[in-house]
Specification:
By secondary structure, this protein is an alpha/beta fold. Helices cover 37% and strands 19% of the residues. The strands form 2 sheets. Strands 1-2-5-4-3-6-12-8-13-11 form a 10-stranded mixed β-sheet, sandwiched between helices. A hairpin with a 5-residue loop joins strand 1 and strand 2. Helix 4 runs antiparallel to helix 7.
């Protein structure tokens, strides 16, 4: 009798425990459904993210509070977007760039043109910009599969700013965003009237060299091409460089310069070197920085490059010793020196790194000749 009562008591306790577990499971499921519903509301009923863990990882990164830079002036949230390009190739070329919200819309064209790994450092100088930046990054993760796959994005803000995951009060930022094209259209609207490096927050200098260093941390053992966000790389440049015979041998340290040009904003970017030459001859294209600082690009020897016969595939055209104050755009190993983070806004930011680089590489620079279009910067 006592044994029977004991067994009944154990069975009852087991039943209660089972019911509690079932209750907790149902409660968890309801909570998860409520959370999904909450964040679906941001996109007016659209499911925000595919079930690949991007949302959860984004929330974890933001909840971590980021990390301060060496100066203690800036807070860095690394890999808000974590492109899945590790392991795709043993060695690739990573496009490294930086931007404020005003130029983030250029990421769409960069991803379409580069078709490979991209690392972006995004600067948000004030609380409003930080909140808007996290909202737009979330929208990119939610609706833009190519960006999710190709881009690693890192947020940089002032040390006294803290980024947080978008909440329902941010619903207005997501209104009418139903597809990737809507996200970039909104980013383009945000860019209207803004100029490069112009900060809406008083006394906020644009920390371009810090941003370059943050973005290049993701490069690892790959090659890298560091460009400004509003530059357009040559179509097929990445694949052509990777197919280049390894006269890029490690025994001869150096970098591979990509000649850069400026084009009138209303002009279509040329598709071939022949088209580029035609626009150059009528004054619609000019060498990069020709008016602002022609001697900063003079060693590229544009006249030599322009007069080279059109050829394919990509090849090393000629070699040049570095000269002051040359600051070319180039493909290089990730072992080249870091940028000097003391330089901000305009002036000496890239040249300070080029000077350090010549000490380590004996100043040898190879220029790439290519029949496809070269790096072209849209004139603002």
């Amino acid at each position: 009798m006592h044994c029977s009562c004991f067994q009944v008591l154990v069975a009852a306790l087991a039943l209660v425990a089972g019911l509690q577990l079932l209750y907790l499971a149902l409660l968890s499921g309801l909570h998860g459904q409520e959370q999904r519903s909450r964040y679906a509301e941001l996109f007016q009923g659209r499911r925000p993210l595919p079930s690949d863990g991007h949302k959860e990882r984004l929330k974890r990164v933001l909840a971590s509070g980021g990390a301060l830079d060496a100066s203690g002036q800036y807070r860095i949230y690394r890999d808000l977007l974590l492109g899945s390009w590790d392991g795709a190739r043993s060695q690739d070329v990573v496009l490294v760039t930086h931007t404020s919200l005003g130029n983030l819309h250029h990421a769409q064209r960069l991803a379409e043109r580069w078709q490979g790994p991209i690392s972006v450092a995004l600067f948000a100088p004030g609380s409003v910009e930080v909140r808007l930046a996290t909202a737009m990054v979330y929208a990119l993760a939610a609706l833009c599969a190519p960006i999710r796959q190709l881009v690693r994005l890192h947020l940089v803000c002032h040390a006294d700013q803290v980024a947080a995951f978008p909440e329902l009060q941010d619903h207005g930022e997501f209104a009418h965003l139903q597809a990737c094209v809507d996200v970039f259209a909104k980013l383009a609207r945000l860019a209207a009237g803004r100029r490069n490096y112009a900060m809406d927050v008083a006394n906020a200098s644009y920390p371009n060299n810090l941003l370059r260093n943050v973005a290049r941390e993701a490069v690892g053992g790959h090659w890298m091409l560091v460009v400004d966000m509003d530059m357009v790389p040559s179509e097929g440049l990445r694949e052509a460089f990777l197919a280049l015979p390894r006269a890029a041998d490690e025994e001869r340290p150096g970098v591979f310069v990509v000649p850069a040009f400026e084009i009138r904003h209303t002009r279509r970017i040329p598709g071939t070197k022949t088209e580029l030459l035609q626009l150059y001859q009528v004054g619609e294209i000019r060498p990069f920085y020709e008016e602002l600082c022609s001697r900063c690009q003079a060693p590229t020897n544009y006249s030599h490059w322009l007069n080279l016969p059109v050829s394919s595939p990509l090849r090393v055209a000629y070699e040049v010793e570095w000269q002051d104050p040359w600051e070319p755009f180039y493909i290089a190993a990730s072992s080249v020196p870091l940028y000097d983070e003391r330089f901000k806004q305009y002036g000496f930011n890239r040249i300070s790194q080029a000077r350090k680089g010549t000490t380590r590489s004996q100043g040898r620079v190879s220029s790439l000749a290519k029949s496809l279009r070269e790096g072209v910067k849209q004139e603002q």
